[in-house]
Write a structure and sequence with these properties.
By secondary structure, this protein is an alpha+beta fold. The protein has one domain (1-202). It contains 1 helix and 8 strands; from the N terminus they run αββββββββ. An 8-stranded antiparallel barrel has the order 1-2-3-4-5-6-7-8. β7 and β8 (192-201) form a beta hairpin. The radius of gyration is 20 Å and the shape is globular.
Amino acid sequence: MYVLGTLLLFVSCQSDEQEAEEALLQVNDVILMKALDSYRNFKSTKQPSMTLKSPKANQVTKEFKMLYSRGTVGVVPNSDPYNDGPNSGCEGFYDLQFVVDGGGIGSLIGKFSVRNLACVDMDGNFVSPLYGWITAANGDVIHTMLVNVTPDMDNLNFATYHYEIIGGSEGGRFENASGYIDIYGDTTANPFDFVGGGEITY
């Protein structure tokens, strides 16, 4: 009888946990839709701080093209702080993050992975800048920050997302890089495909 009671309690706890997780996912889906709207209408209130190499450095400016890229978007509990950014995460902002994860193939960097993070509130509003990390095939990282978004007036599901390059991983090829990357895509699709390119000075 004792074993049966323990088993029923265990099943009941598992059921409660599953219902709680499903409720969180439903809430996050609602917040995600609102956050996607915020993403499509984003305009940064923070200017990127550019750190350039010394005038003695031999900088080059090269065109960058995303030959193929695909990503997913989501709103998740805060679990991955801004690794190299000015924040330590989203504490104090309901512990929620808007996350873009993806990857593709690009000129200059080969196969890459990309992650964008921003803190969001329960209404899906961005309450922090949206920072990005593009990790090249050799491990070099390009740091980016979303500056603004230009909607495609012929297809309002599509927009161009304008990112400033604000450096890169310490000791890597892009450590003090500058420039821009513009990507174009439909974030109402999940996963979504996007195309883009820009210029990198490093």
